[in-house]
Amino acid sequence: MLRMTLSRTAQAIIMVWAVATALFFLLNAVPGGPVLALTGEFADPDTVARIEERLGLNRPLAERYLSFLGLLASGNLGESYTYAKPALAVTLSHLPATLVLAIPSILMAAAIGLPLGIRAARPGPLSGVIIATALVLFAVPVFWLGHMLRLAPGASTVFPVQGMTDPRGFYQGAAYWRDVSYHAVLPVLTLTMHQMAYTILITRRAIRAQWVRPYVRTGLAKGASVSRVEWRHALPNGAAPIFALFGNRIGWFLSGAILVEVVYAWPGLGQLTLAAIQNRDLPLVISVVVVGVLFTMLGNLLADIAQTASDPRLRSGKAAS
After folding, report:
1. Buried-exposed string 208-246: b where 16+ CB fall within 10 A, e elsewhere
2. pTM score, two decimals?
């Protein structure tokens, strides 16, 4: 366990460096720049020069990159050009709003997708309906699905379609969280439906792979019900790809939530990322992406730990047969 944790930590450090470096050079190669975004096209040259000097943009690119590496090594991603605050602090201040969407979506996708995936592993017309629905949800882009839910008859009259809270209300305590939950219904439903499709398809494949194992036939021969064999035996033994799915998809939930946030005007990392890109706020863009990379690596680590804890063969260091 310790070796795996150290290995994943080293991988995370290398990944953060590689992603941050690629973003640094790509964003510096984009036409325009933060000064143009801050001052407009008709700014006075002296004003432009002062802003470039204050932001350090008048230095050579190689010198700025070395300075950036020093900040990255110290855990400081620089100061946001737009907010005039540490970029990482600005990112983390918007992270809770995104987690309000991501965490319920993960839990609901697991609670709904696992039973449907197990049921879809059986033959029959109902399984065909479940698989067809999952494939459709799997194929459509998450932002398109969000727009369709917004335009669904009655949706906009029953649930809010933009924002995290009612700007006309000044709620506190439990009333505030009820308002947030009310506004989060459609965004959470959008993310849940998209992730649920992956869960159904991966679970179905994992369960079907277990049906050919001898222990399944033995359990059925002893008189155990199909449901008991599926839940008590097939699911634990086939859980590895399901754990891997959710571990790998944690990073997707952040990026998917970002797309959904733009559709529903949700004030999380999505709106922050869009504004940072429009303003050419390089430190802020890098900060958002680095946080996403770290969450992805953390999700993979948690998935590996869950697989190790659930599979005695992995705990003993023996390869699965």
Report:
1. eebeeeeebeebeeeeeeeeebbeebbbebbbbebbbbb
2. 0.78
Domain ranges of the chain: 93-156+187-279+295-315
What pLDDT does 195 receive? 85
Count, in order, helices (H) and strands (E) of the chain: 16, 0
Q: Which CATH class is domain 93-156+187-279+295-315?
A: mainly alpha
* Residues 78, 281: Cα–Cα separation, whole Å: 11
DSSP 132-159: HHHHHHHHS-HHHHHHHHHHSTTHHHHS
- Alpha-carbon distance of 57 to 280, in angstroms, equals 12
- Give the largest Cα separation in the chain, rounded: 86
- Token digits of residue 2: 């310790």
Cα(24)–Cα(112) distance, integer angstroms: 41
- What mean pLDDT value characterizes the chain? 81
